[in-house]
Every structure is written in C-alpha cells, then in structure tokens.
Amino acid sequence: MTGTSWRGRVRIGVLALVAFVLSHDLIFLVTYGPAYRVGMARLGHDDRWTTAVFLVLGLAVALAIAGGVRLAQLARLARRIEAGTADRRLRPPARGARLLARDFGRSWLVIFPIALLLFVVGENIEHVSAGLPMPGLGVLGSLDYHGTVVILGAVSAAGALVDALYRWRAKVLEARIEAARSRWLRANAAPARPDLPWVERRHASIAGHTAIGRAPPAGAAA
Q1: CA 78, chain centre distance (Å)
Q2: Residue 220 included in any domain
Q3: What is the pLDDT of residues 74-98, one digit of tens each?
Q4: What is the spatial distance between Cα 214 and Cα 62, in angstroms, rounded to a whole number?
Q5: Is residue 219 part of a domain?
Q6: Residue 105 belongs to some domain of the structure
Q7: Number of domains composing the chain
Q8: What is the pTM of this model?
Q9: Is 24 contained in some domain?
Q10: Which residues, at least 6 apart from 153, have a Cβ–Cβ distance to it below 8 Å?
Q11: Range of the domain at 121
Q12: CB atoms within 10 A of CB 173
C-alpha cells in the first residue's frame, strides 16, 4: 500500500476518484467528439453525473489545499530548526530518481485499478438506470467506448505522479527536520568543560624539595 497513514489513504482515494471522473469524460469525448454530451445522455448520464463531477472536483481542490498547507508547515518547521543549529551547510541528500520512480509505480498500481473498477461499475449502473442492458466488461472496449484502458491508465499515471512528487517533497522536508534536530541534540549533549583557574601543578613538589634541603630548626637539633 502506498500510504500507511489515514492521510495517505485519503489522498490515494481522492486521486483515484479524480482519475475516474476525468477519464470518463475523456473517453466519451474521444468516442463521440463534439457530440459527446448526446452520447452520455443516451447511455444514462443525467444531472446526477454532473453533481458527482462537481463533488469530486471539490474534493480534489480540498486535497490540493491540504497538501499545500502541509508542505508549507514542514518547510517552515525545517527553517526554524535549521536556524538554531550551528552548522547549516549540512543537508540530507534528496531521494534519487530511482526511488521517485518506485513511489510512482506503487501509486499507479493502486490508483489505476480503483479508477478502472469505478468506471466499470459506474457505467453498468448508468445503463441499468437508463433501461439498457448491462454491458459488463464491454465498457473496456466497444463502439461506445474508445480507448478506455489506455485513457484510464494515462490519467491514473498523472495522478500517481502527483502523489509521488508530493510524498518525495514531504520526505525531503522531514529528513531536513530530523537532520537538524539530530545536530541540535548532539551539540547540546556535549559536556561543557568547567572554566577553572590555572593551577601550577609543580607548586607542591617544589615546596617539598625546598623543605627537604633546609637544615632542621635549632630546637629540633637540641
């Protein structure tokens, strides 16, 4: 799974919904051209579909705002912590392209199947609501649906790229915060040497040798 936290699951779910909605309209646009609205109405898409589109787009906007706020908070925290460290030149290395590609692949393997399932189920429901026979898996490729799998795959890939880039940036900021905090803790954990006055360690030995070399007092000799 691409995200273990509830934020990650919500983000993936919203991206899958957005991929489904955008792919749906693109498929009808590719299939019917300028008459795509007529084709959608013929297959049972009414005002409920328009409402669903606006709802999903609203969720996408909310997700973008929440993600932007989260990244801004992490960036501000990273700057504040780094400002209190003695060495600001050290920076944790950014994750490379290979790891970014891995995150992208993992996100796509979740977003694409969800968007595909939503499209198949949604179209079958629309057909039944319009009094048409259920097309089943025929929505993945027929005269009424051109390029379904390709379009869903491409749009899902765009959503997966957005998710991978967001996660990459968040992890870079978190690594900067952790590195700065570790440097701060090491600097404050170092024991401070007491500022003691200078002492000549030879004073005692010099005094001892002087006492030995002297003659005993007169009273002691008697």
Answers
A1: 15
A2: no
A3: 888 777 776 665 444 445 444 567 7
A4: 94
A5: no
A6: yes
A7: 1
A8: 0.69
A9: yes
A10: 112
A11: 6-213
A12: 21
Rounded Cα–Cα distance for residues 57 and 8 (Å): 18
Tokens of 133: 């026979």
Residue listed under structure tokens 């026979």: 133
Half-sphere exposure of 86 (CA within 13 A, CB side): 7
Residue 80: what residue type?
Answer: R
Six token digits for residue 31: 């299939």
Q: What string of H, E and C letters represents the secondary structure of the chain?
A: CCCCCHHHHHHHHHHHHHHHHHHHHHHHHHHHHHHHHHHHHHCCCCHHHHHHHHHHHHHHHHHHHHHHHHHHHHHHHHHHHHHCCCCCCCCCCCCCHHHHHHHHHHHHHHHHHHHHHHHHHHHHHHHHHCCCCCCHHHHHCECCECCHHHHHHHHHHHHHHHHHHHHHHHHHHHHHHHHHHHHHHHHHHCCCCCCCCCCCCCHHHHHHHHHHHCCCCHHHHC
Whole-number Cα distances in Å, 115 to 14, 15, 67, 159, 167:
10, 9, 21, 11, 21
Given a contact cutoff of 8 angstroms between Cβ atoms, the answer to whether 180 and 82 are in contact is yes
102-157 pLDDT, tens digit per residue, is: 889 999 999 999 999 999 998 898 888 878 888 888 888 777 788 899 999 999 99
Tokens of 128: 């039944």
| pLDDT score recorded for residue 186 | 67
Rounded CA separation 42/37 (Å): 9
